[in-house]
Amino acid sequence: MDTGTFRGLITFILIVAFVGIFFWAYSKRRKPDFDEAANLPFADDDEQPTRDKHASTEHEADSRHDRGDKNR
């Protein structure tokens, strides 16, 4: 098998893979899954984000220092 034949086979395999992925992605069975995934950024979070306790205390200390608070 020469180089040209090998490259032709690889090209053919890649084209078949591309067409397969194209039809998989645009099939009607996949549409509800992709619509749900597309709306994930707009979904409401049920949980409040947890804050790092260490970062929270540093922020409070910095804000007291900025106000000139001597009682830390």
Outline the secondary-structure elements.
Blueprint: H1 3-25, H2 31-38, H3 53-67
Quick take:
The protein is mainly alpha-helical.
Description of the molecule:
The chain has helices at residues 3-25, 31-38, 53-67. The longest helix is centred in the N-terminal third of the chain and has 23 residues, at 3-25. It starts with a helix and ends in a 5-residue tail after the last helix. It is 64% helix and 0% strand. The protein has three helices and no strands. The radius of gyration is 28 Å and the shape is elongated. It is mainly α and 72 residues long.
Number of strands: 0
- Ranges with pLDDT <50 over ≥5 residues? none
- How far apart the termini lie comes to 80 Å
Secondary-structure content class: mainly alpha
Order of helices and strands: HHH
Q: Note the total helix count.
A: 3
- Beta percentage is under 5%
| C-alpha geometry | elongated
Give the biggest sheet: none
Rg, Å, rounded: 28 Å
Helix content class: 55-70%
Taking all residues together, what is the mean pLDDT?
Answer: 80
Fill in the keyword field for this structure.
mainly alpha, elongated, 72 residues
